[in-house]
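Hey, sorry to bother you again with one of my protein questions. A protein chain has come my way and I'm curious about its shape. I'm sending you its amino acid sequence along with the backbone structure tokens. I owe you a coffee for this, so here goes:
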Amino acid sequence: MPARKIQITFLAGVFSLFVAIAANAEPFNLFDPGTERVVNYEKYGKFENVGNAGYKYTITDQAGLAKASGEGIDPNRSIWTDPVFKEFKAQGKLHKSIWEHVHSGNPQADFYAWATTSDDPGLRLLFTGKALEDAGHYEHALKAYRAAMILYPKSFGWSRDRSFTWLIAPGVWGSIIHLTRDHPELELKLVDALVETQPSIGGDPTKNNVSITPGRWIKYTLKDREKSRVNVAKLKVVQRRGGKVACVKYENDQWGLEVDGKPFFIKGASYMPTKVGFDSTWNWMEADENKNGKNDVAYETWVDKNRNGVQDPDEPAVGDFKLLQDMGCNAIRIFTSMPLNLELLRDMHKSYGIYGILDEPFGAYTVHSGATWEKGTDYRNPEQRKAMLEAVRKMVEQCKDEPWLLAYVLGNENNMPGSYSGVNATRTNASVYPDDYASLLNEAAMLIHKLDPNHPVGVGNVGVGLIDVYAKKAPELDFMGINDYPGMQGFGGLWEVVRKVCDRPVLITEYGCDAYWTDKGPDEDAQAQYHRKNWEDIAFNRAGEPGSGNSIGGVEFEWLDEWWKDSSGKLDVHDTKPTLDMAFPDGWSQEEWLGIAGQGDGKSSPFLRELRKTYYLYQDLWNEPKQAGKD
């Protein structure tokens, strides 16, 4: 087993218990708010190996740190003498199960319960912070998050079914970023911080490596935020990766995307419509159920406005391409695992102004590698490497001169952490042999650049795992394509990690949320709120905005519900069973409800569309005249 360099990872969908929508609650007073608004840790201890795997903070003045921090924040224990805490405990207001105190609607009880639990200290501080945030005690919440990040860098939690662990430090860092971004009245910003993690190959969470760069607080006013906004069209381009379509680096070190020399921000949708009763092999590009020569999904779908399952006279055929155009979508993600209908895609661009982002699976699920399903794609195997490069060559030679082409993406979550044997959920060993995977990515990117210098190429990652390896072994990659489902609050430190580790623009190639609340039923409001918060984060981090300045857009997942994803194999049943433990509002993902459009009862598939509230949300966001970079 080759030695692995430090890998930076956020596990998608790990914070499922603290993204629920908190109920409004009465504020409460803190018994001991601490003597410092933001704690000066240098004053009370010693940092060692900052930014390295051996990171450590040693407290040298425990009494001073406790006094500065305030109740509920380690090492302060004054909460045990808080008279209201004693009253809550005596009156039985604190539940036996600590997990009943997550967004319960009573943040004061949640605060007392979490701040006094004997659970993992990092986990305790994280949920203490969430309770404080629910109560509007934002500054004290920031102290809880920062204490978890600095004092307990290796803390972890378990998923609900205890099938995987998740690290606390990236989550609390993200919470700090989110809270200070959404509440500019705090006039605070944490700068120069970085959280780097390396999960153990053997799966023992106690052996994870975590390095912390704690950063520093600065005063950051709303006026400072506004001053940081710039018009990128007026900035000098100092680096260009591509031609007609190019990733460009501006003189202020921010990254953007340009098409024909003009700024372009991707407002994309994962477009993989599937007819009810079929699985993912159904090719939408060849769909013509009524044999009239028109593509069913592109041109003949209709909106069931009253949701009665019947096409009424006022519900004419409009087609998905028109619906996407009206939503403000300017790009769709297309997988090359199926034959492409070039004429259809040409009309999509000519008539509706929509581009295509081509995604070559690159061995994911053994597609185009020639590997067996049982063994999975092996990036060390010369024959398999050759087969994947040949698939890339065919894709580029077929599409490089197409007017609808925007960019190439290699892989789809191929880096997902795997077992020691090397086969992960996407049936590849990329996470176990990252150098071999990265070297092949580099070969493929070089091949694309040789055949097509006009379009950029990126990797299709899950989270930011392995990007440090890509920085060294795959410099030909023009952008980082990242699938991430981080929760309601947004993408946390992802932008900063990429900026500092490999300095490339970021395209969020998947993000989104299902439209079903477990044990309650369809919930379009929660889905729309989740999408809104995620998109706001994507837009906040684009070039010219106050964030990290390396976002080039996002591709929401997904356009249409897919009824084939349940493991039962019932392709004609819209299953509501929780599928995965995810960072969605109810803590679960119903994989067959991720669309921003539904298919009704399925009887009129593939033609019927029920447009959910998220569709109309994007119609407002993506067509807003004040939205920078109208594309």
